[in-house]
Design a protein that fits this description.
- It contains 13 helices and 17 strands.
- A hairpin with a 2-residue loop joins strand 3 and strand 4.
- The strands form four sheets. Strands 1-17-16-15-5-2-3-4 form an eight-stranded mixed beta sheet, with no helix packed on it. Strands 11-12-13-14 form a four-stranded parallel beta sheet.
- Helix content is 30%, strand content 23%.
- It is of the alpha/beta class and 428 residues long.
- The radius of gyration is 21 Å and the shape is globular.
- It folds into two domains: 109 residues, Urease, subunit C, domain 1, CATH 2.30.40.10; 304 residues, TIM Barrel (Alpha-Beta Barrel).
């Protein structure tokens, strides 16, 4: 099977064969940061069984020719929202007319688009409809629909009026008083109830919105929205249930409180200061920059009528700053993990983030590591995801060019395999 000619998207299994052999021209070892040539990756079932020198053929095995390609592990995006996509002003009102089934069915198209872009695993950090998102995750795991492996937060946790308060922007008689079940807490006791509810719902990860947000229908985009006591309680409860804790944070004080409380990752981090970066480095707190989201909303802010009046100035102010913050954090030695906030930007365009990371000074190999081995570590799946090595899931992508020379090659993934199943290839 040569990577040449027009694109043909497929969803096929190789289970009829004893093994599948990928003849690889250039193989990126993200663990060591080295590149080797002329290798055979042997796949049995959904796992990598061996890596052999040269192009080895075995009778009865299927051989896939990637000898003219650069091959690497399936990419991981640790910040997406698969059940929606920002398309203002319509997307601000869709919760009034879309049912769970509508969200779930639409999300299947976003999931497939993401997978075909080479992202075989994602962390979904907050759904408009948690039931739809969990249904999508489970359907993908069962092989009912194609899509990336999903680590799902379900409903994000906020404070009253905070970034993820679902009643923001509603008229008074529709607001109600959402509580821990709906992802809104006030005080340490409610923090415990919210975590336990996420456990009951089937969440894989906890998401907190610890500062204001750009796109929420509220004035502030950066003020701290949790007390230190609330954050301590949330993190303590989450650790009791073995959850990874991710936070949304733009403002410095909210980010500081979250890092001090012991969260695992901070996203956006627009106004981070050098002392916060030093604290993250010392504690091993991962930074998920989402430069793409900042760039995207800044462009929308330039267009009249695209964003609500309360949102537009926040988008104009915050968007241009994130790339600079990322550069400082990288130079300061903060652990960097790839994440885009796709759903704000269009799904399937996740790889644009790589270009912004490299533009800011990160070497291409480190950018790829951020989306593979580093991301797998954050997901607590470093023994199964993020590498091409024996025992790991057969999540593999390939491009014709060399992304270590031109990182934008990752915007045009030519071959995708997930779980040993070929999802996308070129026809001969």
């Amino acid at each position: 099977m040569k990577l040449a000619g027009p694109i043909l998207s497929v969803f096929i299994t190789c289970s009829a064969h004893a093994a599948t052999r990928l003849h690889v021209g250039q193989l990126i070892d993200v663990a060591s940061g080295e590149v080797s040539s002329d290798k055979t990756v042997v796949i049995v079932g959904n796992r990598i069984a061996a890596i052999e020198d040269g192009f080895v053929i075995r009778e009865g095995d299927e051989t896939i020719d990637l000898s003219n390609a650069t091959v690497m592990p399936g990419l991981i995006d640790t910040h997406v929202h698969l059940d929606h996509e920002l398309d203002p002003p319509m997307s601000y009102s869709e919760s009034y007319y879309m049912n769970s089934a509508d969200f779930a069915l639409r999300a299947t198209t976003y999931a497939r688009r993401t997978l075909e872009a080479g992202f075989t695993t994602v962390r979904d950090l907050g759904a408009r409809d948690k039931d739809a998102l969990f249904a999508l995750r489970d359907a993908i795991n069962k092989g009912i629909v194609p899509g990336p492996r999903i680590f799902a937060a379900g409903k994000s946790i906020a404070t009253t009026g905070g970034h993820a308060d679902p009643s923001n922007g509603l008229r008074e008689n529709l607001r109600g008083d959402p509580g821990p079940k709906e992802g809104v807490i006030n005080g340490p006791e409610e923090a415990y109830k919210a975590i336990r509810q996420r456990y009951k719902d089937g969440s894989d990860v906890i998401k907190l919105t610890v500062t204001g947000g750009v796109l929420s229908l509220a004035k502030s985009g950066d003020n701290p929205q949790f007390t230190s006591e609330e954050l301590d309680a949330v993190v303590a409860a989450a650790k009791d249930y073995n959850f990874v804790v991710a936070v949304h944070a733009h403002g410095a004080e909210g980010m500081r409180r979250a890092v001090e409380a012991g969260v695992d990752s901070g996203g956006h981090g627009t106004d981070m200061t050098p002392d916060i970066m030093a604290m993250m480095k010392a504690r091993g707190t991962a930074y998920v920059p989402t430069i793409l989201a900042g760039k995207w909303v800044a462009k929308l802010a330039e267009q009249d009528g695209k964003l609500p009046d309360v949102v537009r100035p926040k988008a104009a102010a915050v968007g241009p700053l994130i790339q600079g913050t990322f550069k400082q954090a990288w130079q300061a030695g903060v652990p960097i993990v790839f994440g885009t906030d796709s759903g704000v930007s269009p799904h399937g365009k996740n790889a644009l983030e790589f270009g912004y990371m490299v533009e800011a000074g990160m070497p291409p190999m480190e950018a790829i590591r951020a989306a593979t081995v580093n991301a797998a570590t954050l997901l607590r799946a470093s023994d199964e995801l993020g590498q091409i090595a024996p025992g790991f899931y057969a999540d593999i992508v390939a491009v014709i060019g060399d992304p270590l020379v031109d990182i934008t090659e990752l915007e045009h993934i030519d071959f995708v395999m997930k779980d040993g199943i070929v999802i996308k290839t070129h026809a001969e």
